[in-house]
Amino acid sequence: MGRFRQHVNPLKASFFERSAGPLALPAGKEIEVELGCADAQFLFERAEKLPDRVYVGLEIREDLALEVNRRARRLGAPVHVVFAHANLDFSALFPAGTVARIFVNFPDPWFKRRHRKRRVVDAPLAAAMAEALAPGGELFFQSDVWDLALDALAVLEAEKRLDNRAGPWSFWKRGNPYGVKSRREAGCEEDAEPIWRLLYNVTAAPAPGSGAP
Questions:
Q1: Could you give the CA distance from residue 102 to residue 105 in angstroms, rounded to a whole number?
Q2: Do the beta carbons of residue 72 and residue 57 sit within 8 Å?
Q3: Can you list the domains of the chain with their CATH numbers?
Q4: From CA 146, how far away is CA 41, in angstroms rounded?
Q5: Residue 108 annotated among the catalytic residues of the structure
Q6: Residue of 89, 108, 122, 144 marked active site
């Protein structure tokens, strides 16, 4: 994998000049989505464990999205990365009730106060994710930045269609339940750094025969 920009300003005017359309999603397969997937290591590992699903990454760096898609074709993996701005494009990309799981793994923290409006988890995105999730669908968030995790908790608790699996206003303390790790997560665990996690379901009852994580 080549060298790519670490950060992209999500408020660049060019992102607001684009328009996204719905993805052509296969019928009869579970769809899993990762926001800000970077090199999509998390999705590739999910695909290796569960190859009967479809894995979609959203990535704001177009050159990185292209590189990951080349890797997916080379490996024959059911992974596809879309060059997209999650906050602007999510609703257009995924029709209501079509996604089984959404992962938000270690999003950019944007530490400076004047940059916090660039953080990805905001109220409109929370509503869009809740709308896209199928009955019983799951939303999993993790970060090694306490302030960012607390902001995400506040936003997601305010979305009434999401039910916190750990209880109201609580972080998930049972580790990552999905059996794979992003590069950032593996690095944090290797360095014994804390990780704050959130796990939500949409409030509708799970569909009959829906799978476990």
A1: 10
A2: no
A3: 27-202 (3.40.50.150)
A4: 24
A5: yes
A6: 108
